[in-house]
Design goal:
The protein is mainly β. It has one domain (about 5-390): 6 Propeller (Neuraminidase), CATH 2.120.10.30. The protein is about 5% helix and about 35% strand. It has a four-stranded antiparallel beta sheet with strand order 3-2-1-24, with no helix packed on it. Strand 14 (about 255-260) and strand 15 form a beta hairpin. The protein is globular and about 50 Å long.
Length: about 400
């Protein structure tokens, strides 16, 4: 993405602020008649979008807004959170979930959820005036990497330009800088470990005149940074480490598309074209690598740019608060299928091991569903937006 200076710094600040947003409004009310399970995605959803011309098969419906840029209203009829496994109802226990969910939760810190018992363990509470957007556990289980900006010296304003910091997996220590943002107007975010733990992938944005945004990787723990893809961000790796997915940015229109490449960024090909959706946000691979899950705004029409916006070179950036949903893109054919109707803000997801389920979060809380979006279950309410990772 290339934004005209001096707009680049402002856009980066908006993007980083959107990575960790406190949820101050009450939890969405659920009607008493809503069952705890949605057996399948709503019948009104488009079933399959074949590659070639996906836009022709979409039927966008503008959402009402009270003013330009107003946030569209999320869907309210979601299943209510399930009772914890130890309760009398036992609905959560019946799911027989396994493993842990690691979540960053803004100023509320980093914590893990035992998916079998529902037990919550706090691992890190960030100090006042710091900024935390993500936490990812290393494959060997000894440590985690944080996207973190410590409190500025002398009480200065926290600008939110995050670096990469290391923390023991059990917490109980201060984060140690792995890659800081010494240049000031840059940020490191959206990290991903290679399955063998030898590499750390991440997005790197430099808000200079050219506004560089790249997918990079470094050999852990002290290798030099290697630029894999320019004009791209949000890397995702398949479970076997052979496939890299990322969001590529069209330098002229600022539209986002999904691309698949080898682990080193070579042999890239387009999976989801930029014109398919208004914008794309989050991506992750299915457990078997056969599909990529994409959170996207598929039924929202943005306000057109004014003549002044166009004159100043303003583009539609991907940082937004518009409700999104999950789509599933077949890695081989590129066919797209919408699998949810949750209209959530800040979606992040992960395959739930080899269980055939997925795990995801939004402003509404923590959810699990089958790989095709059926049997949706609302597990927990959450206090803020942030990252999500499943591990055994």
């Amino acid at each position: 993405m290339r934004l005209r200076a001096p707009l680049a710094g402002a856009w980066l600040a908006l993007l980083l602020a959107g990575c960790s947003v406190e949820i101050s409004s009450p939890q969405l009310a659920a009607t008493a008649t809503i069952a705890a399970t949605i057996a399948s995605p709503p019948a009104a959803l488009p079933t399959i979008l074949q590659p070639g011309n996906p836009v022709a098969l979409l039927t966008p419906t503008p959402r009402p807004t009270t003013a330009q840029g107003a946030i569209a209203t999320p869907r309210s009829g979601l299943p209510t959170p399930l009772p914890l496994p130890g309760s009398a109802a036992g609905a959560w226990a019946a799911l027989q979930l396994r493993g842990q969910a690691l979540l960053s939760n803004g100023s509320h810190g980093v914590f893990s959820i035992d998916l079998a018992s529902g037990a919550k363990t706090t691992l890190f509470t960030p100090p006042e005036n710091s900024h935390l957007t993500a936490a990812l556990r290393a494959p060997d289980g000894t440590q985690m990497v944080l996207c973190y900006a410590p409190p500025p010296a002398d009480g200065k304003v926290q600008r939110g330009f995050t670096g990469l910091y290391l923390l023991p997996a059990a917490g109980g220590a201060e984060p140690l800088a792995l890659v800081d943002n010494a240049a000031g107007q840059e940020a490191y975010f959206m990290p991903v470990w290679s399955p063998d733990g030898k590499y750390l992938y991440y997005s790197h944005v430099v808000a200079d005149a050219a506004f560089q945004n790249n997918v990079e990787r470094m050999q852990f723990p002290d290798g030099a940074a290697e630029v894999l893809v320019q004009n791209a961000y949000r890397p995702a790796l398949s479970a076997d480490g052979t496939q890299l997915a990322y969001l590529g940015v069209d330098a002229e229109s600022f539209a986002l598309g999904v691309f698949i490449a080898a682990a080193d960024g070579s042999a890239a090909r387009q999976l989801v074209p930029p014109e398919a959706f208004y914008t794309l946000d989050e991506i992750f691979f299915a457990a078997d690598g056969s599909a990529v899950y994409v959170s996207t705004v598929g039924d929202y029409t943005p306000q057109p740019l004014s003549w002044l916006d166009r004159l100043l070179g303003v583009g539609i950036a991907g940082a937004h608060s518009v409700p999104s949903d999950w789509w599933r893109a077949d890695v081989r054919t590129g066919a797209l299928q919408r699998i949810t109707d949750v209209q959530g803000i800040g979606l992040h997801g992960s395959p739930l091991g080899a269980s055939g389920r997925i795990l995801f979060r939004s402003h509404q809380g923590l959810f699990t569903a089958q790989a095709d979006g059926s049997a949706l279950q609302h597990l927990l309410a959450l206090e803020a937006l942030g990252s999500l990772q499943w591990f055994p």
